[in-house]
């Protein structure tokens, strides 16, 4: 029996395919190994590209000598910044060159590129390049980087084009990529009314995306037209097209991006310098070039989740009303801003949590350091702040001698209330998620003291989750084929999460078709309608919305034709399963989609085709409610809620934490494909568990010390609980396709806090820095035993 919870109205007549765990469209090609990824592709005369990374974290580039590399047999092109247009790129701030120009800002930053007849030759050529550096002072801690005497990383920062809003604080702090301050109520004076106050400093790590497929790009250039064709592993064909064009000074009409199968992304493939550099090598060599990163190069050169330090204080009354919160966040964005200012904006926006806290002061910095650039990663700044917020809620509950779920229920935002800045909470289902999590996990029994294995302690913890679903713009085109089947075109990229299948189900349900009657096309910037990106828990919601809108237009055109063919008014017509339009109440009176298509194509009306577009409207921050600096609006989407519970066992001798069982409850609006939704929740939970317990990029003197799968600890099967219970609540949202909401990111957001809270329940140890490795848990245990401060 499915885990989904029924709370929706009756199903639509043509919606039978919804709520079914149909197999993925690409399942057979993947399990048989026939799926084609970028690195599987070859072109005649194809060369192989490779990049040389800087050995220094901060140094001036004094001179290049590429003569030996250029003279090597088999080397067809060698590039440095001097061979490329002086164009900087960046999602928010245009601060990043394709190859380091003038100086390097992190160890591993690409300084030269080579194309050769094979990868071994290309790597030998890289070793033959001689570059002279002048080391410069380095800074690796974001708070230290904000000090007046810190080395300035971007001397020309004010000259960069930037979407980050300026503030006085940012203007006087050269290493600040963004500064945000949000206040409501009377945060300075209300503390005297708080009867219980907790205060902590939390730290979260830089986490690597560890997608199975490293970044890979294959580029070729048409000698006659100059048009570039790029095959690449990306989360957005259109963002990749724009970045390539911008970086190399090309018209977008001369750049075509095609996306083969993609082996994961999680935010790490929203954009990549791998793509324009590969194109630049292809142009220089006059031949196709493929560049596929090794795992080490991907980890050293690409991007990570933002490490974050969070100072938080929360106050409440004795009856459990949370009155005040003060937060200061420092997001380490590394050498380049990338998506960092927007990530920081999301962190600030969620710093109050999904609660009604009337008085707060939130200050957030996004800071340049001499580390690998940080960017989008599943949750987009929210897992960091949720870790701090939800651990403090448990600390408050402990001081108030109140059950943690009860405290959350007492303060949970409800439908009709306002988020920070006045954004409406249109579907406030947190209470339903908390209640379902309490029931499913047998919370009350498991909170009671219980015997465990000698030397081990067992506990249970939870976290509430608030996130968003939607974001920016999408479009779709639906075309009726001559035989009555339908072609669906979008620019959305399926990065392995199953969105092609879910979107096909949406289209099939809207038109009463089977999946066999539907052709779902892949992303190609020469022919696909625009889609911003696969990310931000947006694809099912946003792309599904425009698909249903286009299908409604197709239905209208079908009815116009069928009305004349059946000689009945349109209001008497209905869609029937299998591609049929019929007259209501008259089973014999019907006409097939194929017959309608033939009439439209050859007799009257023309092709039946429809397009739709939509963009989530940004919500301006209400200045009467919230004082805001550095943030004037939030365009992140509709709110979604969840609750996550974990049971752990902690070894008191080693500090090792084993998660025994987990429950992850999410309001998904309307389930499109239960197996896919449950898979997303389970996958997100495991990725969140890595964030909580094992995953951390570690630097020493500016050098990344663990850029490999042997040094970077990703959870294996023995580390994952046997039972992760995904529980789907259905509270349909009118804006989503058939009421659906997103769940992909929310499934990760609360995991680290739930684990930390479970450790505290089991042992009393207060873990404020993750990952909660054995050493850190043991240190917290020893501190607790000695009666010291956490």
TrEMBL record:
Stated name of the protein: Aldehyde oxidase
Protein species of origin: Cystobacter ferrugineus
Residue ranges of domain Aldehyde oxidase/xanthine dehydrogenase a/b hammerhead in the record: 32-137
Cofactor: Mo-molybdopterin cytosine dinucleotide
Region (Disordered): 1-21
Sample GO molecular function, one term: iron ion binding
Record-linked InterPro entries: Ald_Oxase/Xan_DH_a/b (IPR000674), Ald_Oxase/Xan_DH_a/b_sf (IPR036856), Ald_Oxase/xanthine_DH-like (IPR016208), AldOxase/xan_DH_MoCoBD1 (IPR008274), AldOxase/xan_DH_MoCoBD2 (IPR046867), AldOxase/xan_DH_Mopterin-bd_sf (IPR037165)
TM annotation in the entry: none
N-terminal signal peptide: none
Coiled-coil ranges per UniProt: none
Pfam families: Ald_Xan_dh_C (PF01315), MoCoBD_1 (PF02738), MoCoBD_2 (PF20256)
């Amino acid at each position: 029996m499915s885990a989904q919870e029924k709370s929706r109205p009756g199903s639509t007549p043509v919606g039978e395919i919804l709520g079914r765990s149909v197999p993925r469209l690409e399942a057979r090609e993947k399990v048989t190994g026939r799926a084609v990824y970028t690195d599987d592709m070859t072109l005649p005369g194809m060369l192989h590209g490779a990049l040389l990374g800087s050995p220094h974290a901060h140094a001036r580039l004094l001179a290049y000598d590429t003569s030996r590399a250029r003279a090597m047999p088999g080397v067809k092109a060698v590039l440095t910044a001097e061979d490329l247009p002086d164009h900087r790129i960046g999602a928010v701030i245009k601060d990043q060159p394709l190859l380091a120009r003038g100086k390097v800002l992190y160890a591993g930053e690409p300084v030269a590129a080579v194309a050769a007849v094979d990868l071994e030759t290309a790597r030998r050529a890289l070793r033959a390049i001689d570059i002279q550096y002048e080391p410069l002072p380095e800074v690796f801690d974001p708070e230290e980087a904000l000090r007046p005497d810190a080395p300035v990383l971007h001397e020309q920062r004010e000259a960069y084009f930037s979407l980050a809003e300026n503030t006085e604080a940012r203007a006087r702090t050269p290493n600040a990529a963004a500064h945000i301050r949000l206040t409501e109520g009377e945060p300075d004076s209300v503390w005297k009314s708080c009867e219980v106050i907790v205060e902590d400093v939390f730290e979260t790590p830089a986490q690597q995306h560890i997608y199975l497929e490293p970044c890979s790009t294959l580029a070729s250039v048409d000698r006659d037209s100059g048009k570039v064709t790029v095959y690449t592993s990306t989360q957005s064909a259109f963002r990749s097209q724009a970045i390539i064009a911008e970086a190399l000074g090309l018209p977008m009409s001369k750049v075509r991006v095609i996306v083969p199968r993609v082996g994961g992304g999680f935010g790490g493939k929203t954009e990549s310098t791998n793509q324009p550099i590969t194109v630049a090598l292809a142009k220089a060599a006059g031949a196709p070039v493929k560049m596929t990163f090794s795992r080490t190069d991907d980890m050293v050169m690409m991007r990570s989740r933002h490490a974050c330090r969070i100072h938080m204080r929360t106050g409440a009354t004795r009856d459990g009303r949370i009155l005040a919160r003060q937060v200061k966040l420092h997001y380490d964005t590394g050498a380049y801003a990338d998506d960092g200012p927007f990530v920081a904006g999301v962190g600030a926006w969620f710093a109050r949590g999904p609660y009604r806290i009337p008085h707060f002061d939130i200050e957030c910095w996004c800071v340049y350091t001499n580390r690998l650039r940080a960017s989008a990663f599943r949750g987009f700044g929210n897992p960091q702040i949720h870790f701090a917020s939800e651990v403090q809620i448990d600390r408050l509950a402990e001081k108030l001698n109140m059950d943690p779920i009860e405290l959350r229920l007492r303060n949970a935002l409800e439908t009709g209330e306002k988020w920070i800045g006045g954004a409406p909470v249109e579907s406030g289902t947190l209470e339903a998620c908390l209640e379902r999590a309490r029931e499913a996990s047998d919370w009350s029994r498991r909170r009671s003291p219980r015997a465990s294995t000698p030397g081990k302690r067992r506990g249970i913890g939870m976290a509430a989750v608030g996130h968003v679903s939607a974001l920016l713009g999408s479009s779709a085109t639906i075309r009726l084929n001559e035989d009555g089947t339908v072609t669906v075109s979008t620019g959305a990229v399926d990065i392995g999460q199953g969105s092609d299948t879910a979107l096909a189900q949406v289209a099939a349900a809207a038109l009463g078709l089977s999946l066999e009657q539907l052709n779902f096309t892949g992303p190609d910037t020469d022919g696909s309608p625009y889609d911003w990106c696969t990310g931000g828990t947006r694809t099912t919601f946003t792309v599904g919305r425009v698909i249903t809108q286009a299908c409604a237009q197709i239905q209208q055109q079908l009815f116009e034709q069928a009305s004349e063919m059946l000689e009945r008014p349109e209001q008497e017509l209905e869609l029937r399963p299998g591609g049929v339009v019929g007259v209501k109440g008259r089973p014999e009176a019907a006409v097939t989609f194929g017959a309608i298509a033939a009439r439209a194509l050859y007799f009257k009306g023309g092709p039946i085709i429809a397009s739709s577009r939509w963009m989530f409207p940004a919500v301006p921050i209400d200045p009467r409610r919230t004082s805001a600096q550095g943030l004037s609006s939030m365009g992140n989407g509709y709110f979604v809620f969840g609750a996550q519970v974990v049971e752990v066992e902690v070894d008191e001798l080693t500090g090792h934490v084993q998660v025994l069982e987990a429950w992850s409850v999410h309001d998904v609006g309307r389930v499109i494909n239960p197996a896919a939704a449950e898979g997303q929740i389970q996958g997100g939970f495991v990725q969140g568990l890595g964030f909580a317990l094992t995953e951390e990029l570690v630097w020493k003197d500016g050098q990344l010390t663990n850029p490999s799968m042997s040094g970077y600890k990703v959870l294996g099967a023995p580390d994952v609980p046997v039972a992760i219970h995904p529980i789907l609540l259905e509270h349909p949202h009118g804006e989503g396709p058939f009421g659906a909401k997103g769940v992909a990111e929310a499934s990760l957001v609360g995991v680290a806090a739930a684990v930390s809270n479970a450790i505290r329940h089991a042992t009393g140890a207060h873990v404020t820095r993750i990952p909660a490795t054995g050493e850190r848990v043991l240190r917290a245990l020893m501190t607790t035993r000695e009666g010291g401060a956490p």
